[in-house]
Amino acid sequence: MYELDLESAKKIIKKNNSKRVLIQLPDGLKPKAEEINDFLKKETGSEILIWLGSNFGSCDVPSQAKDLEIDLVIQWGHNKWV
């Protein structure tokens, strides 16, 4: 069972006035993609894109993201990272 901090993600999106947000998830969290998308889209009005490619940690930002005109990238992982 994973605990997604959607409220913090919502606050960050609103604080940055992000219109196009890329969400990056490891394979174990990809089943939560629809839940994440629905909540953030409803609560922020932003366009939420889910990256379904590989994600091997916080340093694995997809190079294709620059072509998507993303305002913000949010990455979730299995472990807490401070």
What would you say this structure looks like, in words?
- The structure is a single chain.
- The longest helix is centred in the middle third of the chain and has 12 residues, at 33-44.
- It is built from two helices and three strands.
- A three-stranded parallel beta sheet has the order 2-1-3, with helices on one face.
- Helix 1 crosses helix 2 (33-44).
- The chain is 27% helix and 17% strand.
- The protein starts with 5 loop residues before the first helix and ends in a 7-residue tail after the last strand.
- The protein has a single domain, classed as Rossmann fold (3-Layer(aba) Sandwich).
- With 82 residues, it is an alpha/beta fold.
Oligomer designation: single chain
User: Major β-sheet, in short?
Assistant: 3 strands, parallel
Shape: globular
Number of strands: 3
Could you report the average pLDDT, rounded to the nearest whole number? 84
Query: Which blocks of ≥5 consecutive residues have pLDDT under 50?
Result: none
* CATH fold category name: Rossmann fold
What separation lies between the terminal Cα atoms?
20 Å
Number of helices: 2
User: What class, by secondary structure content?
Assistant: alpha/beta
CATH class value: Alpha Beta
Strand order of the largest sheet: 2-1-3
Order of helices and strands: HEHEE
Q: Any idea what the CATH architecture is?
A: 3-Layer(aba) Sandwich
Strand portion: 15-25%
Rg measurement, Å:
12 Å
Number of domains: 1
Helix content: 25-40%
